[in-house]
Design a protein that fits this description.
Length: 121
């Protein structure tokens, strides 16, 4: 963690703790190595958190060039997950199931391409 970010993180911990003392339920999760902090309110549930995390995955998929060997895997997987999360408490339509199957086929097709064209970071 950079010194400035570490100082911010410690201040944020103090702030979160001060609200907990006021009986405000706040959860905080951090990944110090990547300088990421997430704060969740008391009404946050697993479905909402999953949708929020998916937004970040979708952003990566949409900003990654299509020639990247893993782009199609990421994009089509996120499309399936998005559809499932949107209908988590409902029913998938026939069209949505067809779209999931199409994305699954795209994942299969791109898996063989990704296996033969690795990516070094």
């Amino acid at each position: 963690m950079s010194d400035d970010f570490e100082e911010f993180y410690k201040s944020l911990l103090d702030l979160v703790e001060s609200f907990k003392k006021k009986n405000v339920l706040v959860k905080m999760h951090s990944d110090p190595g990547s300088n990421i902090i997430r704060i969740y309110g008391e009404r946050s549930d697993g479905l909402t958190l999953a949708k929020t995390g998916l937004e970040e995955i979708e952003e990566l998929a949409l900003t990654t060039a299509e020639h990247h060997p893993y782009w199609a895997l990421l994009y089509n997987s996120s499309e399936i997950i998005k559809t499932v999360l949107e209908k988590w408490n409902g029913t998938l339509s026939e069209d949505e199931i067809k779209q999931i199957m199409w994305c699954s086929d795209e994942i299969k097709n791109s898996s063989s391409h990704a296996a033969s064209h690795g990516h070094d970071e």
